[in-house]
Amino acid sequence: MNVEEMSLSALRRITHATDVHSRALLREYQLTGPQVSILKEVARQGEAPIGALAKASYLGAPTVTGIVDRLERQELVSRIRTDVDRRQVRIALTAAGKRLLARDPSPLHAGFREQLLKLPKTEQRHICDALDRVATMMEFAASEAQQSSTPRT
Amino acid sequence: MNVEEMSLSALRRITHATDVHSRALLREYQLTGPQVSILKEVARQGEAPIGALAKASYLGAPTVTGIVDRLERQELVSRIRTDVDRRQVRIALTAAGKRLLARDPSPLHAGFREQLLKLPKTEQRHICDALDRVATMMEFAASEAQQSSTPRT
DNA sequence: CACACATATTTCGTGTTGAAAATATTCGCA
DNA sequence: TGCGAATATTTTCAACACGAAATATGTGTG
Description:
Helix content of chain A: 55-70%
Mean pLDDT of chain A: 92
Shape of chain A: globular
Number of domains of chain A: 2
Oligomer: homodimer
CATH architecture of the largest domain in chain A: Orthogonal Bundle
Low-confidence stretches of chain A: 149-153
CATH topology of the largest domain in chain A: Arc Repressor Mutant, subunit A
Number of helices of chain A: 7
Largest sheet of chain A: 3 strands, antiparallel
CATH superfamily of the largest domain in chain A: Winged helix-like DNA-binding domain superfamily/Winged helix DNA-binding domain
Distance between the termini of chain A: 42 Å
């Protein structure tokens, strides 16, 4: 199997494992992986607008809108409209949201985290480097493709 | 940012780039990334049942059923029921499917592929190793979680 | 043979995802 | 002031993904 096929296969395995974990989270916390990610991002940023959450999570605004809808339905966050800019919606954690985060759910398997941290520091760095390089190469490829369809300004 | 957060962030960036590319494919070939993957898998295996395609692609059978539905709608594959086992459905490439594959669509960005292949062989190996290790660690973590919820037989 | 069990696929329900379009609001400029 | 451009969010739409349940078929045992 060549490099391309191996990478593709590994990426599919990663996606699959992530998805399976997301459904396990749903059973345990009534919350999926992306919902946990956004909830944590809200906690990190504090009263953040949708757009900021989307950017920080590498998701589109419509996606985050849907996730926030479901978090709001469970009253883990609330939408706040301020008078400074009435287009913006700020997402705030509720008390229930804080309680849930205190249970420390993670979008990644606890077992994965353990194994990763058990590796020597150099190994950990190698892995992070590799993931980062793959991400960067893909993003660069995407931006090039974008430009080639709009050759001149 | 710690190792965990960096990995998570890189994985989300990879997922996002992959998804964006899938939509670009749709414009160019009227086919998404997963559809291309399955079409290629059909070409590789030749008259494969749904289950075999699902396993090879790390997808669930219901997911592949949907993808095959859409490929069939475009007449790129056809479902064949044999008399040996009438539960099974074998998926076969049509002439149109072969023609489309001849245009060499890829579920990964062409630009990404180029960059990957331009790297020194050792770098390529590092990246494949890292991706494979992440996948393996996640799958192992998932299988452990599975077992802990069914402690005894 | 009949009935329980196993296997292959599909259907259904819910959640995730992004592009395009719709909506609401703000900003810049004449 | 007024009006067009820019910005923030939501809606709509199609695809993807999985688990559970439904359906159809095959297998094995009494």
